[in-house]
Amino acid sequence: MPFKSDEFLNKVVLVTGASSGIGAVTAILFSKLGAKLSLTGRNIINLEKTSQDCENVSHNKYKPIMFKAELTHDKDVENLVKETIKTYSKLDILINNAGILETGSIENTTLEQYDRLFNINVRSVYYLTMLSVPYLIESKGSIVNVSSVNGIRSFPGVLAYNMSKSALDQFTRCIALELASKNVRVNSVNPGVTLTELQKRGGLQEGEYNNFLEKSKGTHPMGRVANPIEVANIIAFLASENASFVTGVNMPVDGGRSVAGLR
Ligand SMILES: *[C@@H]1O[C@H](CO)[C@@H](O)[C@H](O)[C@H]1NC(C)=O
Ligand SMILES: *[C@@H]1O[C@H](CO)[C@@H](O)[C@H](O)[C@H]1NC(C)=O
Ligand SMILES: *[C@@H]1O[C@H](CO)[C@@H](O)[C@H](O)[C@H]1NC(C)=O
Ligand SMILES: *[C@@H]1O[C@H](CO)[C@@H](O)[C@H](O)[C@H]1NC(C)=O
Ligand SMILES: *[C@@H]1O[C@H](CO)[C@@H](O)[C@H](O)[C@H]1NC(C)=O
How far apart, in Å, do the first and last CA atoms of the chain sit? Predict the structure, then answer.
């Protein structure tokens, strides 16, 4: 493992969308590196599994606190921050990972879809970050934001998703500037297609999923998709002291996809 085992000793880390995929793997990595975790997700059974995994790999056998949270509900977000502070008395690192992807073009994206995407991908991140910032200033903490590739299902025609993404990229850069003088760093990772169970759970049949992965090999110059741990490692790096002078960055973790042209 490329990390010191006490890299995040007693740091308090809040991870949203921790019940599966990149969020779960990231939570487990931070736990292994000594952190105390506050986890949220919508699937309580999976969240409990992540939590158990975290406890198992924690040297101090720290047990995460867990919230079955609907981040579009303001009360849930408020409760999440309140309980995290009540339990741990501080917050060092915020990992904004929850998010959704839905398809549709200007011709067929309904307002309901638009609202859903913006509420989950933008508004809830905004509110959670807003409530966390006072504590992050206190701890000189950091924010790492993860792209919302939770249920990749198609390529073109993801209009509302793309709009929510650019809103958030601008958000990352703006708050990085706003918080720089207060020593809070804000960065994001931009994963390419990442191997998780989510695509299948999102309704793709086995065959369709394999086709999707095959096609993805062609769009990622390194000829494969990402393993979630490869994304989690970069999240940990950006949150760590090693990245102490890095802020306002959107870091691709995509085997070269973002620098390649269409082919
Ligand atoms: C930070 O760098 C040190 C070596 O300088 C290394 O041991 C450690 O694992 C790095 N941590 C992270 C999170 O990158
Ligand atoms: C965690 O450890 C417990 C006890 O050692 C074990 O029973 C359980 O299977 C482990 N859970 C996971 C998810 O690894
Ligand atoms: C929306 O319309 C586009 C063409 O504009 C089409 O390619 C796509 O399949 C449609 N998507 C849905 C979800 O109906
Ligand atoms: C959405 O964004 C991705 C990546 O930034 C881009 O490749 C794609 O062309 C965009 N799609 C649409 C419909 O704008
Ligand atoms: C985080 O960065 C990713 C990739 O650049 C982007 O898709 C996402 O919307 C950003 N979210 C925030 C909160 O900045």
Answer: 35
